[in-house]
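I am still getting used to backbone structure tokens and would like to learn alongside you. Please make up or recall a protein chain and show it to me in full. Would you write everything just below, so we can both look at the same thing?
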Amino acid sequence: MTILSSARRPAAWLVAAIAAATLSACAGAARPDNMVVTSATTPAVSASEPGYKSFRVAHVDGGSQTNPLWMSAVSSEDFKKALEDSLRALGLLADDPASAKSEITANLQDLQRPLAGIDMTVTSKVHYAAKSTGDQKVIFDDVVAASGTAKFGDSLLAVERLRVANEASVKENIKSFVERLRRSLGSTESASN
């Protein structure tokens, strides 16, 4: 055996181990806690602002369960939890859903995910509708699109990078929605004065 061939053996084993780990990795579902927008990145609503503790999340659909043998996805249940936790953290979620003055529905229309890549970018498109519970006045009704990227340094495994990119995309989507909802609430209040 030559010195060159014995030096290649550990490298070959390392490559084989990484390939086996990559091939045996299962896709994981997006985690709701990683999709929550907090007051650390987006200012919370104060008690004097419109919308303060006045919303409930009535319905969320369009998500899908993750197939461990295919690719990471975002379920409707996990998206709803992330949306509610974000609204709570930002002072928009009512303490008691029955007393909410307004309600939000969300439909996850599209989650554009790459099949492979070093850096993975996912784009989410969600149709949000918000209306008052009493007179059914529309507060917000539009599609919000946002992207999130996971870099190679976030995980060596592509299935994990995709999960991280899904979470980043949905988090950015919720953040964009909240910012647009707050602007809409401000313009609605200005119009009523």
